[in-house]
Amino acid sequence: MAGDTTGGTLQTLDRGLRVLELLAAGPGPLPTREIAERLGLHRSIAHRLLRTLQDHGLVARTESGFVLWVGAHLLGRQVLPLLQRLARPEIAHLAHGTGHTAFLTVRSGDEVITLVSVEVANPRVRRISEPGTRHPVDCGAPGLALLACEPPTEGERPEVVEARRRGYALSSGEVVDGLSAVAMALP
After folding, report:
1. Secondary structure of the chain as H, E, C letters
2. Contact between residue 139 and residue 169 where contact means Cβ atoms under 8 Å apart
3. How many CB atoms are closer than 10 A to CB 93?
4. How far apart are CA 74 and CA 90, in angstroms?
5. Are 52 and 16 in contact (CB under 8 A)?
6. How far apart are CA 97 and CA 99, in angstroms?
C-alpha cells in the first residue's frame, strides 16, 4: 500500500526512488524483470512502480526496457540553478578572501561532483574544478571531508580519520598534479 512505512519512511516512495536511481546509474534500458531482481522486489510491484513513474513522465518504456525520461530531467534541472544561485556569492567571497579558486561539491554515490567554481584573478592560480567535474569520493580533499562526516569504517584511509579529528581535510596532488586543497563539509 502507498501508506506502508519502514523506519519512518514511505516504503512505496522509497522503492520508486530506488527505481529511478537504478535507471540513472545504469548503462541503458532495463526490463521490469531485471529491475525487480536488482531491487529485491516482486515483479508485480516493480511493474506497478514503473507504470506510476511512466504516468508521471519520469520513465519511458523502450523495446529493451525502461529508461529515465524527460520528467526526471526537468525535475533535476530545477535543483542545480537554485543551488548555484544560492551558493555562488559565498563561494566567491571565499575565493576572493583566500586568493585561490574555491568550489562547492556534493557527493553522488562513489563520486564527488563540482556544482559551483569561482576563480580569482591570480596568474599562479587556475580553475581546476569546472562545474560538472567528477572524481572518486575517496580522492581529494572534498571527498575526504565528506567521508569524514560518516561513521568510522574499518580500513578507511588515515586521511579520513585525520579529517574527522580536525574538522577539515587536506590533500596534495590527488586529483590534479601540483594542486593542494583544503575542504570542509557543511552540515
Report:
1. CCCCEECCEEHHHHHHHHHHHHHHHCCCCECHHHHHHHHCCCHHHHHHHHHHHHHCCCEEEECCEEEECHHHHHHHHHHHHHHHHHHHHHHHHHHHHHCCCEEEEEEECCEEEEEEEECCCCCCCCCCCCCCCEEECCCCHHHHHHHHCCCCCCCCCHHHHHHHHHCCEEEECCCCCCCEEEECCCC
2. no
3. 12
4. 26
5. yes
6. 6
Length of the chain: 187
Summarised one tens digit per residue, pLDDT across range 65-115 is: 999 999 998 988 888 888 889 999 999 999 999 988 899 999 988 999 999
Least Cα distance to 140 among 174, 182, 184 occurs for 174
Cell 562547492 -> residue: 104
Query: Distance between CA 93 and CA 159 in Å, rounded?
Result: 27
Residue in this structure with the C-alpha cell 520508486, named with its chain if needed: 16
The three cell numbers of residue 154 are: 574499518
Could you tell me the domains of the chain? 5-68 (1.10.10.10), 78-183 (3.30.450.40)
C-alpha cell at 110: 562513489
The residue whose grid cell reads 543551488 is 83
Quick: pLDDT tens for 116-166. 999 888 777 666 678 888 899 999 999 999 999 999 999 999 999 999 999
